[in-house]
Amino acid sequence: MSSILVTGAAGFIGAHVARALALRGHRVTACDNFNAYYDPALKQARVQQLLWPAGVNVSHVDLTDPALTQRLVDASGAEVVLHLAAQAGVRMSVDRPLDYVQANLLGFGSVLEASRRAGIAHLLYASSSSVYGHREGEGEHGAKPFAETDRIDRPASFYAATKMANEAMAYATARVHGLPMTALRFFTVYGPWGRPDMACWLFAERIREGLPIRVFGKGQLVRDYTYVADTVEAVCRLIERGAPPPDAQGVPVETFNVGHSVPTTVNELVAGLEAAIGRTALIEHAPMQAGDVPHTESDPTRLRAAIGVWPRTSLAQGLAEFASWLAWWQQRGDGADAAMLQMPRPLPLA
Ligand code: NAD
């Protein structure tokens, strides 16, 4: 069992992974700055509902403060760092790129520096499918899955640019200091305790309320929707597998797509949500948004070779879990704390 520091642990993926690691017997230290990108009450509720019952406390730390980050890493006694804290979201990066410089470049730089000074044995960090960018000639048909060896030098958004930069920063740190690094290229994660800024939540909320949803273009954008418990299982297995050995150039780095590997159009997502919620969506079409790419799909070959195959959750089952969680979340009303303690069903990772 390892001692693991998880950053961004009040976030969607972070809360689920930190909980799962603790339940698997690892010693978990966790931090987050509880920023207001979306409702901080949701972050606090994840801590109460997912983390405290698993014995994980979350320290309030802003990783853009290098001295504080060093104190956190030193005090954690961690062997492994799982860095998930970031300013997420492609669309906001169009108007507010400097928020991404702060969280994703300064924040990650400060985690890298503190980790190598503390002698961390393995650092895994969140990259993104967005690093694959917009590929010429790919539109609605005939697009191929993304392999880790594909070029990643054409970001379609500033968010993607910061994730590319993270991979370069990690590589340089591994090369110069020998700190082993694993890049996790996540593909559109969804599920209970998810992110309210993402399509799955936005659509589900409005379909439930009988309000129109805005679908960009003709709804033919393809995403590789990945159920959060499957993402979590993959991350846990990558941690437990241990640090990568040096590659052919002597640099201890590795990169993995972490996705469901089932390309799904937005129209198919909407149909799945209609079935899960039991209501028909009212659809309004809107122009395509800056920063969006037409197609994301993970080639799972490398991940499967590393951690084996595990039973993954179908979109229909994952959307049913999410819809029933969202119904509970939205009905909790003013007596939020009392209602949360009476959750009607076991949490997905229990
Ligand atoms: P999230 O926004 O729910 O979680 C990120 C957490 O990091 C938040 O709780 C936030 O408060 C925290 N944070 C931000 N800046 C910080 C700072 N300076 N110091 C400390 N904490 C800070 O996002 P998520 O969906 O859980 O994503 C986790 C990671 O995975 C992110 O790096 C994201 O870019 C990446 N990712 C997510 C997806 C997805 O589909 N959810 C896809 C690709 C990549």
From TrEMBL:
<dbReference type="InterPro" id="IPR001509">
    <property type="entry name" value="Epimerase_deHydtase"/>
</dbReference>
<dbReference type="Pfam" id="PF01370">
    <property type="entry name" value="Epimerase"/>
</dbReference>
<dbReference type="InterPro" id="IPR036291">
    <property type="entry name" value="NAD(P)-bd_dom_sf"/>
</dbReference>
<keyword id="KW-0520">NAD</keyword>
<feature type="domain" description="NAD-dependent epimerase/dehydratase">
    <location>
        <begin position="4"/>
        <end position="244"/>
    </location>
</feature>
<protein>
    <submittedName>
        <fullName>UDP-glucuronate 4-epimerase</fullName>
    </submittedName>
</protein>
